[in-house]
Amino acid sequence: MPAGARVPRLLALLLLVAVVLREVESLVSSRESNICGKGEYFHQGHCCKYCPAGTHVLEHCKVQHGESFCSSCTIGKEYTAHENDLEECLQCEQCKEDKVTVRTCTLTSDTECQCKPGYFCPTQHCEMCSKCKTKCPEGKEIVQECNATMDTVCGSLSEGSTAIFVMFIVLLCICIPVVVGIIFIVCKKKKSNKTNTENDEEREVESEGSTEILILPDVETGQTSAPRLETETFVQSPQDQAANSPISGLKTKLPEDNGVASCESHKLLLNDTNHTSEEAPQGTEAPVKLLYNHNLYNHIQESNMQRVQELKARPQIKVKDLFHISTTERSDIYYSFIKQVPARNWKELIRCCLKDTEIDNIIHEFPKDVKEQHYQMLINCQNSLGIETTITKLLDRLWSMQLKSCYENIVNTLKSRDIITILDAKD
């Protein structure tokens, strides 16, 4: 065979071998990728674990079933909605001039835009909004106002009346059960309060160790030791009242103290010691004596004084100017609060700068990620008050909540990072 005829056949054979090798490699790769479990992806012969939503792959894993090194997306600029193997985060959408921002971009969700008032777009992801009709043709009237997803709807007068009637019926069906439910709750609450009042009237004597004030009948004899707590009025004849009254001529004054009970119809005296029962004059009813628990009163006074001293000892914190702080440093500050404050105390803390509706919206947006919920709440506080005011309010609230350990740990962390300075004790 001539040499010139062998060359094309050799080239064809080499080409065939290359195609076969490529197919074999593809099959092997496909087989390897099928080995990867749920939540993994195949990369250069290894099954790597996906990065969570809000992050992207910075470096792929080097061992089988290993974890890739993930990096967080830039807040307010990038996002990833699901676990992924992306090497870059997705860019947040910027709302155009004819749209308004409904929800800002987060680490796990894109910006939501909708047409501004007076414009509409029938599809969810439209490029341009259309201007709404402002009036209807002759013989027609507006039966449905324009909104972000629908143009003004025109119709005859009868159509408009029908729509209004249907809307009225729907509102009526909603309102009636609500009103009935409110009436039921109010009646139940009144009944419960009435029952509690009757029980209180029947309860005459409590245990001696109770923290309530104990009212017991007391009668007198000829023996009189120390001033007693008695009533000045008795059920008796006017002639005998002045002669038989054991406290006739005695003027009493009650101490102006929250620990002493008062009575509108009787003048009461404090008795420092417990007296034995004494006989009441004939034809009179036993006066009432109020036993006072001095140990309880002293304990309350000491607790109040201790709390006042603690409030006086609160250090005065000054937050430095954080205008040029980096995103990473800001995240570290917020995560120091998230790490130290227990989850059960978080809502009480964050109410210093957010309303309950705002808190509930963020919890609904991130239902399965508590740390992300807390982080987004702090970001919302910052957007509303500024980072310096946010830190100050959070520290003040922690002190008032008496979470001393959390307060001290966070203050020490912020002080070590040169975020705050401690001036002196706050009187």
TrEMBL record:
<keyword id="KW-0472">Membrane</keyword>
<feature type="repeat" description="TNFR-Cys">
    <location>
        <begin position="72"/>
        <end position="113"/>
    </location>
</feature>
<dbReference type="InterPro" id="IPR008063">
    <property type="entry name" value="Fas_rcpt"/>
</dbReference>
<keyword id="KW-0325">Glycoprotein</keyword>
<keyword id="KW-1003">Cell membrane</keyword>
<keyword id="KW-0053">Apoptosis</keyword>
<keyword id="KW-0812">Transmembrane</keyword>
<keyword id="KW-1133">Transmembrane helix</keyword>
<feature type="disulfide bond">
    <location>
        <begin position="136"/>
        <end position="154"/>
    </location>
</feature>
<dbReference type="GO" id="GO:0045121">
    <property type="term" value="C:membrane raft"/>
</dbReference>
<dbReference type="GO" id="GO:0009986">
    <property type="term" value="C:cell surface"/>
</dbReference>
<feature type="signal peptide">
    <location>
        <begin position="1"/>
        <end position="26"/>
    </location>
</feature>
<keyword id="KW-0677">Repeat</keyword>
<dbReference type="InterPro" id="IPR011029">
    <property type="entry name" value="DEATH-like_dom_sf"/>
</dbReference>
<dbReference type="GO" id="GO:0005886">
    <property type="term" value="C:plasma membrane"/>
</dbReference>
<dbReference type="GO" id="GO:0036462">
    <property type="term" value="P:TRAIL-activated apoptotic signaling pathway"/>
</dbReference>
<feature type="domain" description="TNFR-Cys">
    <location>
        <begin position="114"/>
        <end position="154"/>
    </location>
</feature>
<dbReference type="InterPro" id="IPR034024">
    <property type="entry name" value="TNFRSF10_N"/>
</dbReference>
<feature type="transmembrane region" description="Helical">
    <location>
        <begin position="163"/>
        <end position="187"/>
    </location>
</feature>
<feature type="repeat" description="TNFR-Cys">
    <location>
        <begin position="114"/>
        <end position="154"/>
    </location>
</feature>
<feature type="disulfide bond">
    <location>
        <begin position="95"/>
        <end position="113"/>
    </location>
</feature>
<feature type="domain" description="TNFR-Cys">
    <location>
        <begin position="72"/>
        <end position="113"/>
    </location>
</feature>
<dbReference type="Pfam" id="PF00020">
    <property type="entry name" value="TNFR_c6"/>
</dbReference>
<keyword id="KW-0732">Signal</keyword>
<keyword id="KW-1015">Disulfide bond</keyword>
<dbReference type="Pfam" id="PF00531">
    <property type="entry name" value="Death"/>
</dbReference>
<dbReference type="GO" id="GO:0005516">
    <property type="term" value="F:calmodulin binding"/>
</dbReference>
<protein>
    <recommendedName>
        <fullName>Tumor necrosis factor receptor superfamily member 6</fullName>
    </recommendedName>
</protein>
<dbReference type="InterPro" id="IPR000488">
    <property type="entry name" value="Death_dom"/>
</dbReference>
<keyword id="KW-0449">Lipoprotein</keyword>
<keyword id="KW-0112">Calmodulin-binding</keyword>
<dbReference type="GO" id="GO:0006955">
    <property type="term" value="P:immune response"/>
</dbReference>
<dbReference type="InterPro" id="IPR052491">
    <property type="entry name" value="TNFRSF10"/>
</dbReference>
<feature type="disulfide bond">
    <location>
        <begin position="92"/>
        <end position="105"/>
    </location>
</feature>
<dbReference type="GO" id="GO:0004888">
    <property type="term" value="F:transmembrane signaling receptor activity"/>
</dbReference>
<dbReference type="GO" id="GO:0043065">
    <property type="term" value="P:positive regulation of apoptotic process"/>
</dbReference>
<keyword id="KW-0675">Receptor</keyword>
<dbReference type="InterPro" id="IPR001368">
    <property type="entry name" value="TNFR/NGFR_Cys_rich_reg"/>
</dbReference>
<keyword id="KW-0564">Palmitate</keyword>
